[in-house]
Amino acid sequence: MDDNSSLTMNISGHPEHVDGTSAREAILGAARAFVQGDAGKHTDGHDWPHIERVTALAVELAHRMGADPFVCELAALLHDVPDEKLNESLEAGMKKLNEWLDQQQLEPGTREAVVNIISTISYAGGQRPAVSSLEAQVVQDADRLDAMGAIGIARTFAFAGARGREMYDPSLPPREQMTREEYRNGRSTTINHFYEKLFKLKDLMNTSYGRELAEQRHAFMVEFVEQFKREWEGTDR
């Protein structure tokens, strides 16, 4: 927006709306409303509660690690908007994101930081380079932690069920190396996904607190998969 007539400057020099709401708070509120509407149509684990959990953890990590909490919170809220799994294409998703950002009173540097985070944190078959900024590390850890533990297990089966993926096939081994295209569209099973991605996340955490949480959640997933296989094979009795 170009019209700044509804803004004043508060005592610290930051823009403030006439109703006392800071410009940043207004942007975050608009982001929540936008994303809640967008995520409300997803039932595959990329829903609004997922966004809420990732955002809360990203803010906590930002404060613990000394990252910019506003950039982390906004990027976490918006991180699934352009996801190619949830849109016709990555290009269509990025267009949707940028059209929303065009309506916000964001400093160019802040917008660039948020878009960079969203564009670089996805797993995508493990082929992406490590993220560089502290804010990207924080949001990536928060998103990956929500793919682990009990919630991660539930989301994995929800996503697989929504996509018609079978739970397990002992004759189909996990894939060791995959291109981005193979990761997205190749045949696999829900249990294989633990080996192809989820079990790898523990060693990919960026922050000290992220690594601490990942250890607990990783151990729970390993125990679950071992028990699943015992019950599948009938060796638990």
From TrEMBL:
Keywords: Hydrolase. It comes from Paenibacillus illinoisensis. This is Metal dependent phosphohydrolase. The lineage of its organism: Bacteria, Bacillati, Bacillota, Bacilli, Bacillales. PROSITE patterns: HD. Pfam families: HD (PF01966). Residues 47-148 form the HD domain. InterPro entries: HD/PDEase_dom, HD_domain. GO terms for molecular function: hydrolase activity.
